[in-house]
Amino acid sequence: MFKKGQKVYSIIKGKCPRCxxxxxxxxxxxxxxxxxxxxxxxxxxxxxxxxxxxSFFYGAMYVNYAQTVALCIITFVxxxxxxxxSLLQTFAAIIIxxxxxxxxxxxxxxxxxxxxxxxxxxxxxxRKAKKTA
Length: 133
Prior knowledge:
Blueprint: H1 7-13, H2 60-83, H3 87-117, H4 124-132
């Protein structure tokens, strides 16, 4: 369904946006606060530097904000319209959803942010091999 060369592949699998081979995050998904957003410095396959410039991932805060607003709206609509909770219960459901999905939002916002700026290059590994030969 998701093939190398598609942005969605890199986002879902947590792979390098340029080669789709190396891992983007140091740890697999975890709720441990110190492990959630730990990144490798470079891709293990193509050597892409993930921190493109100082404070590069500050921009991911905007992506995270958009995700959080969307999550709040979706939770509100589901809780109020489909389940029929009271207003106070609906806000409690929103807070619970935000707390539970915070690690997902943090990781997703970072991988989305770097995928906006780095595109897949299917020939990168072959060019790299040719340069070293």
